[in-house]
Design a protein that fits this description.
This protein is α+β, with helices and mostly antiparallel strands. It has eight helices and nine strands. The protein has a four-stranded antiparallel sheet with strand order 1-2-4-3, covered by helices on one side.
Length: 267
């Protein structure tokens, strides 16, 4: 088996899905399985790990987890995502297993370092300075916020609807305890990028019951989310040079935050 960049997903017989990660992700994979089992106990719709074996499984220097397939899966609506997050955020933090605290800066340094040879010196310096600035701003605006169980990466691909009409959360690797505003900022950023239409975002807000854009700290959380999205894309440049134009466009947006964005979705 060759190297795995992030996660590789395989569909197996018996309606089972295998997720394969590098060995370094062992702890994260264990937490993901624990989260899936706990959410099943709480009756929050989410992907379910296979109950019949001890997980994660370590094989050939990789970590494998096994999940029940969601038959006929398609992307959930924004209203369904809002409803799922509302249910999740209402849960009490469990005492029977430890959910890690949110780290909004996880892997950011790593992503930027992996793209260093693809960036100009000026861009590298700008991104490093922006990251340092956001560390301080995040600490300031997040102080005093109420923490709860959050998904951690509530993007458009992480909620699906099965053939039975039930929408579920998936990709629980960023499952953590942190401010609910971190989850709510993702759909708001998607609206700003025009990846969600106005009606789609309104449906999310109606289902969840709150528009995070009304919160005074929103711009800091949104800026950090956009930096994360940019850094993740930059980390792919060494193996996907086709993304250079999109990377340049995103860096330019970060330099001029008040200008309209024209980011390409799905990259």
């Amino acid at each position: 088996m060759g190297p795995i960049a992030d996660n590789a997903v395989f569909r197996l017989p018996g309606r089972v899905v295998a997720r394969v990660s590098a060995y370094e992700a062992l702890g994260r994979a264990l937490r993901e399985v624990q989260a899936g089992r706990w959410l099943a106990e709480q009756r929050v719709p989410a992907v379910r790990p296979l109950e019949s074996l001890e997980q994660p499984v370590v094989a050939d220097g990789h970590v494998v987890t096994f999940w029940h397939e969601v038959p006929g899966a398609e992307m959930a609506s924004t209203a369904e995502l809002g409803s799922l997050l509302r249910q999740l955020h209402q849960l009490r933090v469990p005492s029977d297993f430890e959910i890690p605290p949110l780290d909004p800066f996880v892997r950011l340094d790593e992503h930027l370092a992996s793209a260093a040879t693809e960036l100009t010196e000026d861009d590298s310096r700008f991104l490093a300075d922006r990251l340092d600035q956001l560390r301080g701003q995040y600490a300031e605006v997040s102080a005093g916020l109420t923490n709860c169980v959050i998904h951690g990466d509530a993007n458009r691909k992480n909620a699906i609807r099965g053939a039975d009409g039930v929408a579920v959360l998936l990709d629980l690797e960023r499952f953590s305890v942190g401010p609910r505003e971190w989850d709510l900022t993702v759909p708001a950023v998607y609206r700003r990028l025009d990846w969600y239409s106005e009606s789609e975002y309104d449906a999310f807000v109606s289902a969840y019951g709150r528009d995070v854009r009304d919160w005074s700290g929103f711009e800091v959380f949104a800026a950090l989310r956009e930096l994360r999205m940019t850094a993740w894309l930059l980390s792919r440049l060494p193996r996907e040079p086709r993304l250079r134009a999109e990377a340049a466009r995103r860096i330019e947006s970060l330099r001029h935050p008040d200008t309209p964005r024209s980011w390409t979705p799905g990259t």
